[in-house]
Amino acid sequence: MRKAIIFICITFVINLTACMDLSADEDKQSDFEKEEENNLAVHSNIPSAKTEKPQADAGEKPKEEAVSLPEPQYKINEHNWSIEPINKATSKVVLLTIDDAPDKNALEMARILKKLSAPAIFFVNGHFIDTPEKAKVLKEIHELGFAIGNHTNSHQNLKSLTEEQQYKEIVDLNDRVEEIIGERPKFFRAPFGSITDYSRKIAEGEHMVVMNWTYGYDWEKEYQSKEAIADIMINSPYLSKGANLLMHDREWTKEALEDIVKGLRNKGFTPVDPVLISK
After folding, report:
1. Which of 69, 109, 110, 218 lies 20 to 30 A from 59 at CA?
2. What DSSP state is assigned to residue 244?
3. pLDDT score recorded for residue 18
């Protein structure tokens, strides 16, 4: 009996010692894990599970980047299609526009204008952007910083078309331009300056500025040379403050373009940035 009691006591002491050793090991393991967790928090961008995330101020709002567009400084005078200053904007400006783009010369014309820091509107025909190669040209002109205008899909006289056809000529081109450059044209010019009441409504519904021009010459035979077109564009009797100048994607106009811009500037005229024209 005494031996049994002694055996039970010895067994109890052994088990108690083992439990104490196990508890000590667990405490050591716990301390090790804590140290590893702290090391992870210090050397990693991943927060510790026990690290509290900083709380934002209750009254603090997320910051948003402000996108500001320049205030309009000019508007179109629809009686003579000139550019009129709003308030105190300088009046001795001209608007440079290139029609029938991008045919064969538009991209090089854009590069010339870019070199001269001369802004302009490139009015696009749909049949000139119907291939991936031509679409790429239009995208590059836009990425050079130039405004893109709508000059209809196939350059027909709108007065000879039905309302449905007029709609397609204008809106289908806007859709195509948006596919290429990511935005719809902001300006509209009817082929031959022949606009109808219905096509005007379409353009206004598409939030485009409607315009014709003050003067242009480069389609006339006598002005189809570098020297002739440069001279008439600079010395036209119609050159005045706010003149809206019509040029085309033509070889001779491309060759004369630098002389035209420099000649206008020598007369004190500044090419206006189309982004400053009010809708």
Report:
1. 69
2. E
3. 42
Q: CATH 3.40.390.10: does it fit domain 74-276? A: no
pLDDT at 8 over 60: no
pLDDT at 12 over 70: no
Secondary structure, 3-state, the chain: CHHHHHHHHHHHHHHHHHHHHHHHHHHHHHHHHHHHHHHHHHHCCCCCCCCCCCCCCCCCCCCCCCCCCCCCCEEEECCCCEEEECCCCCCCEEEEEEEEECCCCHHHHHHHHHHCCCCCEEEECHHHCCCHHHHHHHHHHHHCCCEEEECCCCCCCHHHCCHHHHHHHHHHHHHHHHHHHCCCCCEECCHHHCCCHHHHHHHHHCCCEECCCCEECCCCHHHCCHHHHHHHHHHCCCCCCCEEEEEECCHHHHHHHHHHHHHHHHCCCEECCHHHECC
Domain ranges across the chain: 1-46, 74-276
Helix (H, G, I), strand (E, B) or coil at 97: strand
**Per-residue pLDDT for 1 more than 60?**
no
Say yes or no to pLDDT of 25 above 70: no
Closest CA to 269 of 244, 248, 252: 244
Backbone angles phi, psi at 233, to 5 degrees: -70, -30
Q: 159-187 pLDDT, tens per residue?
A: 999 999 999 999 999 999 999 999 999 99
Closest CA to 100 of 153, 32, 53, 144: 153
Confidence label for 279 from pLDDT (cuts 50, 70 and 90): confident
Can you say how many angstroms the Cα of residue 259 is from the centroid of all Cα atoms in its chain? 29
